[in-house]
Amino acid sequence: MLSHLLHLAGIESIILECRSRQYIEDRVRAGVLEQGTVDLMIETGVGERLQREGLRHDGVWFSFGGRRRRIHLSELTGGRAITVYAQQEVVKDLVQARLDAGGQIVFDVEDLTVRDLDSTRPKIRYRKDGDAHELVCDFIAGCDGFHGICRPTVPDGVITAYERVYPFAWLGILAEAAPTSEELIYTYNQRGFALFSMRSPQVTRLYLQCAPDEDLAEWPDDRVWEELCARMRTEDGWAPAVGPVFQKGVTGMRSFVIEPMQFGRLFLAGDAAHIVPPTGAKGLNLAISDVLTLTRGLEAFYKSGRQDLLDQYSATCLRRIWKVQRFSWWMTSMLHLFPGDDGFDHRRQLAELDYFTSSRAGMSSLAENYVGLPLD
Ligand code: PHB
């Protein structure tokens, strides 16, 4: 997305990707786009398939005590909504748009290192098909994820990390089963959290709270379905439709933020700078807002020689990031079973769910955050 936005601003970039095109286009990730992400994709010409295939949801459900309550997102937010469109579909559309516009993406690079970050000519060294290359840049954007090489390259003492690790994870499946609800359902249950989502009119996406070190071998499909149904079935008899499982995985849960997100000419964006637990469905959307802010800074630099927006990059991003962190942490703490709870948390969680699904003020706050806070 950054490369695409820079291209539209007349700024040249090269993407170095250590995976193959196929790997990044097939990798299953989350699938909820905020209104601002959808608008940005449409406005910048990469929203055609999204508009055709994406599933717009005007509401979201919360299930607890055997009953469901709906938050009418668009009614509470002046017409904003979320759109279900898998992250790897966004990746496919962006890769295609860059290649169609003559953009350079080098896949399968190896041994990538960055250097001279505090000079005006930072450099990237890498290997491709065994040959060594050096790229001399004006700027480097570290969009290389939580495990990437950019963040660890920043000298000690520059960056402070703030972190929360949760005592649970999500076991997620994709199943060939027609979704039995048109909208997402977040379920709080004594057996643990569960989430009903979808990818298409034929594919259901489901998650259940599990242990952080859960062994998938202990979760044959039958057991997954049994547990999902036990947690999600409501008093009126609603339950997810069961079908063949074609993907299964465990997602860890953490909240993580670094400050600042910049060192010299290196700008960190997305998971390289922050991780949110998936409960708020914010990971991709937060990365998009970072690169939009970075694009504005680079645009001002190249068009009018202004450095101020780049200097403010980190502070501008972090203001939004901490609000999104708060929301993701809050959704997580409202909906999961916490080991060792003596009953206080359980009652607090039920009261919280009751309040945020019945008070107009509570529902508005939830909806405003869920559809996405304004992009700067
Ligand atoms: C998903 O559909 O993968 C999904 C939906 C909502 C979340 C997280 C993941 O909060």
Q: Which features would summarize this protein structure in a list?
A:
alpha+beta, 3-stranded antiparallel sheet, 376 residues, globular, 36% helix, binds P-hydroxybenzoic acid
Structure in a nutshell:
By secondary structure, this protein is α+β, with helices and mostly antiparallel strands. It is 36% helix and 26% strand.
Number of helices: 13
Placed side by side, the strands forming the largest sheet appear as 5-4-14-15-16-13-17
Fraction of residues in helix = 25-40%
Report how far apart the termini are.
16 Å
Number of beta strands: 21
**From the alpha-carbon coordinates, what is the Rg to the nearest angstrom?**
21 Å
Largest sheet: 7 strands, mixed
Mean pLDDT: 97
Strand content: 25-35%
- Secondary structure class reads alpha+beta
Describe what you observe in this structure:
The protein has helices at 2-8, 21-26, 35-43, 48-53, 73-76, 87-100, 150-153, 221-232, 283-304, 308-311, 313-335, 344-356, 360-371, and strands spanning 14-16, 32-33, 55-57, 59-64, 67-72, 82-84, 104-106, 110-115, 123-128, 131-136, 140-142, 160-165, 169-176, 185-187, 194-200, 203-210, 245-251, 254-259, 262-263, 266-268, 274-275. The chain has 376 residues and is an alpha+beta fold. The strands form six sheets. It has a seven-stranded mixed beta sheet, with helices on both faces. The chain is globular, with a radius of gyration of 21 Å. The mean pLDDT is 97. The protein binds P-hydroxybenzoic acid (PHB). Residues 30-32, 184, 195, 197, 205, 278-279, 281 line the site of P-hydroxybenzoic acid (PHB).
